[in-house]
Design brief:
The protein contains eleven helices and ten strands. It is an alpha/beta fold and about 290 residues long. The strands form two sheets. It has an eight-stranded parallel β-sheet with strand order 1-2-5-6-7-8-9-10. It has a two-stranded antiparallel ribbon with strand order 3-4. The mean pLDDT is about 95.
């Protein structure tokens, strides 16, 4: 790979002890024989050689996927590689100490954003337990990245992954920047139209390159709705690697050879690869300058 991306906005981090037996049980249904990939700070740093910056966050998916990491792991990675990593906290609103953990992550650990997976924690975006989270994030200019889309995990209510549920929250909290991961697949049209309508809603293309036909249709739809300027590059590492994600984007039109189907433009590809979340996800306050 020769093309370099500016930022990978979706990088997962955990240590070996954070991977529970449930992970292997869940993955066996869809990718038999695969072991949990490494996602420690050193592994991430080596993988991110072809990006300038990487936004990293832990997962608290213990009872759905079988990975239960923590914000301290994220903060330690940022402390070790501050020129490469920008850390996001994870919120699990089921916990009675959710807000205490969030305040600690932002104000003590100095993490710069938040990740939440409604489908993985079984908590809808409209759940009242998220109200203090939204209010805190909006007040403190903290962006919220959300897993939007389906998952292989059996214990994950699928409707909670639909991008259509983002719109009412975006309308209520107009100064809260919300980022829909994975283009809301397979409901990518919902993701695109919500992002198009709501100025504070963005989206990103992590974990899409290994489904090239779906990925192609997503990008064509984004071009036709003219929202490419709101799409950011990401991998979902370690579930997808940087090189394969870049190559998958740049080679998306290869499958169209011999057809008259519309092409994803090189301008679209370049804008996604060089997209800069730090210029858009914080209101006039670039976390890289702090």
């Amino acid at each position: 790979m020769t093309t370099r991306a500016f930022c990978d906005c979706h990088v997962n981090i955990w240590s070996e002890e954070h991977v529970l037996p449930l992970y292997a049980e869940q993955l066996a249904r869809v990718r038999a024989g695969e072991m949990a990939p490494k996602a420690d700070a050193d592994t991430l740093y080596a993988e991110m050689a072809h990006v300038e910056k990487a936004i990293v966050f832990a997962l608290r998916y213990g009872d759905s996927v079988g990975i239960e990491s923590n914000d301290e792991t994220t903060a330690a990675a940022v402390g070790k590689y501050p020129d490469k990593f920008v850390g996001f906290a994870y919120v699990d609103p089921r916990r009675a100490d959710c807000m205490d953990m969030l305040v600690h992550a932002i104000e003590d650990l100095k993490l710069k954003g938040v990740k939440f997976g409604p489908i993985y924690n079984g908590v809808a975006l409209s759940d009242p337990r998220l109200v203090p989270v939204y209010e805190y994030l909006q007040k403190h200019n903290i962006p919220l990245t959300m897993h939007m889309g389906t998952t292989f995990a059996r214990n994950a209510p699928i409707d909670m992954g639909r991008a259509i549920h983002v719109e009412p929250i975006a309308q209520k909290y107009k100064d809260l920047v919300m980022v829909m991961a994975h283009m809301g697949h397979p409901w990518y049209e919902e993701c695109i139209v919500v992002s198009r309508k709501q100025p504070n809603v963005y989206c990103e293309v992590s974990a899409l390159s290994y489904r090239p036909w779906q990925y192609y249709n997503i990008l064509i739809c984004a071009q036709e709705y003219r929202i490419v300027d709101k799409i950011f590059f990401g991998t979902d590492f370690p579930f997808a690697r940087v090189d394969e994600s870049v190559d998958g984007l740049l080679g998306i039109n290869d499958q169209l050879e011999g057809t008259k189907l519309p092409r994803v433009s090189r301008e679209t590809m370049d804008r996604i690869l060089q997209s800069d979340p730090f210029a858009h996800w914080w209101h006039g306050d670039n976390p890289l300058a702090r």
